[in-house]
Amino acid sequence: MPTTPTPDDAHVQHQWILTHPDTDRDDVHIELWTDDYTVRVTGGDGEDSEEGRPAVEALLTKYQSAGYRVAHDYPVNDPAPEPENTPEPELAEPDGRPDACPECGSPVEYEPTYTHPDTWGEGPAWLCTGCRWGRWITA
Ligand SMILES: [Zn+2]
């Protein structure tokens, strides 16, 4: 039994559909993708772009001045998250936290930017909450 394929619109952020009163003119579909710059035009003159919303605005102005009107204007997906919103992986606590300080037995805490008192080097370390004994983490 044939199945109807589901349109894959996960890459689409916003879609505009323009229609023309002359029924012999095809609808124009404009898509802005979630990368915020890819513009795909189906129908019309098919002027794909990578200029984002300014290109969409120019296309809407162009087609509306040619007699089209916006029949549908709706968001599909949120824009893709900016890469800088992802957590800094080097600040995550690695595996292997010692159960207790080997010097005094107090609990230890992770310090991603510890400055070693002897070498003055900076890097991740386990620090004792009691005696502040520090240990460099080695991969
Ligand atoms: Zn200690």
Task: Provide an overview of this structure.
With 139 residues, the chain is mainly β. It has two domains: 12-81, no CATH class; 90-136, no CATH class. The protein contains one helix and seven strands; from the N terminus they run βββαββββ. The strands form two sheets. Strands 3-2-1-4 form a four-stranded antiparallel beta sheet, with helices on one face. A three-stranded antiparallel beta sheet has the order 5-6-7, with no helix packed on it. The radius of gyration is 28 Å and the shape is rod-shaped. It binds zinc ion. The site of zinc ion has 8 residues, from loops.
Primary descriptors:
single chain, 139 residues, mainly beta, 4-stranded antiparallel sheet, 7 strands, binds zinc ion
What is the element layout, followed by pairings?
Elements: E1 12-19, E2 28-33, E3 39-42, H1 53-65, E4 69-75, E5 108-115, E6 122-128, E7 134-136
Antiparallel strand pairs: 1-2, 1-4, 2-3, 5-6, 6-7
Bound molecules: zinc ion.
Radius of gyration: 28 Å
The overall average pLDDT, rounded, is 85
Structural class: mainly beta
The proportion of residues in beta strands is 25-35%
N-to-C CA distance: 55 Å
List ligands, each type once.
zinc ion
Number of strands: 7
Number of domains: 2
Helix content: under 10%
Biggest sheet character: 4 strands, antiparallel
Order of helices and strands: EEEHEEEE
> Which strand order do you get reading across the main beta sheet?
3-2-1-4
Low-confidence stretches: none
